Amino acid sequence: MNSPSQEQIKAQSPDCHQSSSNHRLARNTLVLYLRMAVTTLIGLYASRIILQALGVSDFGIYNAVGGLVAMFSIVSASLSTATSRYLTFELGRKDIDRLKAVFSTSVNVQFAIALVVLFVGCLLGWWFVNFKMNIPLDRIGAANWVLFSSILISAISLINIPFEASVISHERMDVYAYLCIGEAVIKLLIVFSLFAAPFDRLKVYTVLLLGVRLLLFLFYNIYCRRCFDECKYRFIYNKPLLKEMTQFAGWSFFGNAAWLFNTHGITILINVFFGVTLNAARGVANQVESLVLQFVNSFMMALNPQITKSYASGDLDNMHQLVCRGAKYSFFLMMLFAIPCVLETERILSIWLKVVPDYSVSFVRLTFLSSMCIVLSNTLVTSQLATGKIRKYQIVITICGAWVFPLTWLAFKMGGSPLWAYFIFCAIYFLMVFVRIYLVKDLIKMPWTKYVKEVILKSGIVFVIAIIFPIVIYLSLPDSIIRFILVCAVSLITSLVTIYFVGMQTSERSAIMRLVKQRILER
User: Fold this and answer.
1) Listed residues 428, 445, 462: the one ending a domain
2) Which residues form the domain of 488?
3) DSSP secondary structure string, 466-521?
4) Which of 294, 464, 494, 495 has the smallest number of CB atoms closer than 10 Å to its CB?
5) How confident is the model over 467-506, as pLDDT tens digits?
6) Residue 31 domain flag
7) Does residue 9 form part of some domain?
């Protein structure tokens, strides 16, 4: 028997495997950042044009009704989580037969649930839009168009979940990025077409968005069938696997219910208590949050499969490192945008939008604060899902998170400002970071002190130091374009310097210096 060559030994070594994983993570992150940069620029411009094309009232209706439909997408989110977890886990174990069974089983489940969502969503959604929501009588017809188009989009998205999850699980982030960029470009063209629309612009917009979703579904379907063997659908009835995936999705559903009530449910509460004008402000804040979170999610999308695969292969040390560094750098990425955007919100919105709805400035500022609380525990959620043991976790997290909706309703009922929705959300979700640490630490055998020290304390210290000089400039200078430029420039510089010297470990700084030297030598 021939002995293995030096190349084979090197390829099988843990260091080589780790280097390959790091290279793949870096490459995928760069590709996703390219996708993010393009879609962010398009999204910022498109948001401004949508507000002009639809007007404040119709824009508020679109966000309010869209928020209602998103309540039905709780099923989609739960099944997406289950499908992604099982596909990635089996790829980590390299069990091809099981992988094929997971894919086909997920397609069966998604199709059945899509039919249920169509039926139930249309009945309950129609009743709520027509009899419970605060919508002008002359726009009820358009609101129903938004409702039914959005439900169809949700159903198609459900059926597409196994295909999209396959692309991400295989870490084909370049394909995912190209499809997202293509979607953003098409949606921008749709927005421009609204000005020439011969019919009701809100109706035309929602129907065209439905067409985009259908087109994306066809692309994902064709690509996955050609590139991945497991995506060649065959009818499979694997009762144990079906039960296992259904239970996982069921507990994910339980947890996602609280999240959707705390986001889209709050949008509906704002509509009921304050009307569609405040929904327009909420819509602006949500779009800002969505665009900024793309920076964080691009990094997390490249990182999540590696966390799950590390757990599946039993490499817990690497998993702990990925969990802590992923959360820390997610916070730093959010901080780079949060500091200048929170200080100069008024000017940014006035440049971006010609018409700035009331409360938009306050909503955007508080949205950044809530997002920074959320990103602190993103990798904890991924690591929990990787274990597959989510029953206790979802019960506790749902009970804790479920307080946001009733407390907000109570605050509004007592005459409180709409800002109370954000105050309550931030307080509860910050406390939930520590609850997640407690629930996850034993399952992945990671000391809770490690996460608190390396992520929470270090992130807090970096944020406090980085914001000092931008605040001084903001308070010292009058409102002007000069102040805006100085605040943005100084916040970027102080943030990067603080992250490098305070937020990074010695090994991380050394790795960056080696990379820089390598790039210089290559040139």
Assistant:
1) 445
2) 446-523
3) HHHHHHHHHHHS-SSHHHHHHHHHHHHHHHHHHIIIIIS-HHHHHHHHHHHHHHHH
4) 464
5) 999 999 999 999 889 999 999 999 999 999 999 899 888 8
6) yes
7) no
